[in-house]
Design a protein that fits this description.
This protein is α/β, with parallel strands linked by helices. The chain has helices at 15-24, 37-40, 71-74, 90-100, 117-127, 141-149, 165-174; strands at 3-7, 29-32, 47-50, 59-62, 80-87, 107-112, 133-138, 157-160, 178-180, 184-204, 212-219, 222-227, 242-247, 251-255, 263-267, 276-281, 285-310, 313-322, 328-330, 336-338, 347-352, 357-358, 361-362. It has an 8-stranded parallel β-barrel. A 6-stranded antiparallel beta barrel has the order 10-17-16-11-12-21. A hairpin with a 5-residue loop joins strand 19 and strand 20 (336-338). The radius of gyration is 25 Å and the shape is elongated.
């Protein structure tokens, strides 16, 4: 899990509002000062950082390299010790790597004001085998996202001073990039031909993998795992960035705006370049990918009805796919099977959904979808 540290060294006009929003979003790593420490002293669940050694924080941050050797003798043994450094040159970069290999240091906070991406790429590469955490000080949420994803691996965490409660909402989203969704088997009960319908191809800005695709369904009761077009055939080359997902009315899973909900739904017809969707593999592992474009075209389709089981309950699921050999379901075991080869009685991987949504958000409401 990536670490988000919030800079609360200063008491700004909206200080209490920001702190309360941080609590609400379960962001509990705070950089504090002598001035703000009394606000947090009685709260046990916090992880606190401070450059002031007289403050009783759980983590102490050094700013003088000469203190490193002596620090363990002057602070409690259970405290984590870190170092703060401004990176301005290649020499600074080398020094940070050298300090990271000092066993007394648990983490390093690096502030790069000018060049950012290349120096942090170098640090991530050099420090990836070190036990020392690399924390990037950032100015805003966009910088935080960049640092957490630089060189694919990203830094171990970011330090940011929030300016508005929405900053905390957006920061929380950055920690929810990967999670798992429960998949189950769904048996094919009925297959119908639809002479023509408008279908949606979703082209992403990421390469999708074997056993990976999108969860799509005609109702919020459940979603079938549609495989990405990662296969070469003798008639068509692979399109490993694409999922031929279904008809325009179908639901697809997209990232949630709420930290306590893993996803929400969107209609395929609502997607466009720049939107984000959830890519899911056959083990239920989820990652967020961005849409590069969508293509809507009229094609012959097949409508499938399935029956999934959740506990002792039988759940009907349905989805409509283009009638073509390159469109595949993910079947148990992670392999892909073309929709034209699917027969009644076959099983595919599916996810049982919330059963009712309002503008894509799951709600407790009596609803009938058929």
């Amino acid at each position: 899990m990536k670490k988000i540290i919030l800079n609360f060294e200063k008491k700004k006009a909206n200080f209490k509002e920001l702190v309360q929003q941080a609590f609400n979003k379960d962001l509990l790593n705070f950089l504090i000062s002598r001035d703000t420490w009394p606000e947090f002293e009685a709260i046990e669940r916090l992880t606190t950082y401070s450059k002031d050694k007289d403050v009783s924080s759980t983590h102490v941050i050094l700013t003088d390299k000469q203190e490193i050797e002596e620090i363990r003798k002057s602070v409690e043994s259970n405290k984590k010790i870190g170092f703060y450094m401004v990176l301005k040159s290649k020499e600074d970069e080398r020094e940070i790597v050298e300090i990271s290999r000092n066993s007394s240091i648990d983490f390093i906070i690096v502030s790069a004001k000018d060049w950012k991406v290349i120096p942090f790429e170098n640090l991530i590469a050099e420090m990836q085998l070190d036990e020392t955490e690399l924390i990037a000080e950032v100015e805003n949420v966009k910088e935080a996202e960049l640092m957490l994803k630089t060189l694919e691996r990203g830094v171990d965490g970011v330090l940011m001073e929030p300016r508005h409660p929405n900053d905390l909402i957006e920061l929380k989203k950055l920690t929810q990039g990967e999670f798992t969704i429960e998949l189950t088997k769904a048996r094919v009960m009925k297959i119908e031909n639809i002479p023509e319908a408008d279908r949606v191809c979703v082209d992403t800005t990421s390469l999708l993998h074997f056993g990976e695709g999108f969860l799509v369904g005609s109702t919020a009761a459940g979603f079938c795992l549609i495989h990405s077009e990662t296969f070469d055939t003798k008639f068509v080359a692979s399109r490993p960035f694409r999922v031929n997902a279904g008809d325009v009315s179908a639901y697809i899973l997209v990232p949630s705006d709420e930290p306590d909900k893993p996803y929400r739904t969107s209609y395929l017809s609502e997607l466009k370049g720049g939107k984000q969707v959830l890519a899911v593999n056959h083990e239920g592992h989820v990652r967020i990918v961005s849409v590069g474009r969508i293509k809507i075209e009229t094609r012959p389709m097949l409508r499938f009805e399935f029956e999934a089981t959740k506990g002792e309950q039988k759940v009907p699921i349905s989805c409509t796919c283009q009638n073509a050999e390159t469109i595949r379901f993910v079947i148990p075991g992670g392999k892909a099977k073309s929709v034209v080869d699917i027969k009644i009685g076959d099983e595919v991987l599916a996810h049982v959904g919330p059963g009712a949504t309002h503008f894509g958000t799951a709600i407790k409401e009596t609803i009938i979808e058929r």
